[in-house]
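Many introductory courses stop at the sequence. We go one step further.
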Amino acid sequence: MLKIDDINVYYGNIHALKGVSLDINEGEIVTLIGANGAGKSTLLKTVSGLLKPKQGDIIFGGKSIVGKAAQTIVKQGISHVPEGRRVFANLTVEENLELGAFLRKDKEGIKKDLESVFERFPRLLERRKQLSGTLSGGEQQMLAMGRALMARPRLLLLDEPSMGLAPLLVKTIFKIIEDINKSGTTILLVEQNAHMALSIASRAYVIETGRVVISGTADELNASEQVKQAYLGGH
């Protein structure tokens, strides 16, 4: 579904991604593991059109999306839930969700999807008229995910969904990610919590200083001494 081919991305003079290649098949959850500053968020921003690679190509559904505007990429079926959630604090929960569908014209479909988001996140239904800035961190994470789903993505990019959440909520969020995947959405997940990420992913890539250094199935990475030492607390 997605093929990233030898991309190089710079922030000014800083070479943030150095010849990164990876692929994602339809229906998978693929996770990117790596320390802060390794280039994981940069990779997601490049896929969603917020950054442009200097070299290399990104193929989605058989077509190159490099150089396309971010909204065109959303239209083609990729939604991005950014790090730090980025909800519109001065808008209600419902208004945030409606913004997720801003490129769509099918009123009935939008209404149906809104209902299914509320079904998946009952907490948001209770708070639908509340300003998003007043929600807890976990509720804002649910809102950011719900908003992305309103665009009906084929591929969902999730950047650090568990960041700053209590352990119990982390479990809930990961359960929801699995459910979203089971209902037919392919997922590329960036996550500091390598244990949790590997527990739901089919495959994983480890990124260090802008390069892919290890890749394999989630089971292979779970069993790798190198990964255990660096990312799984040596267990």
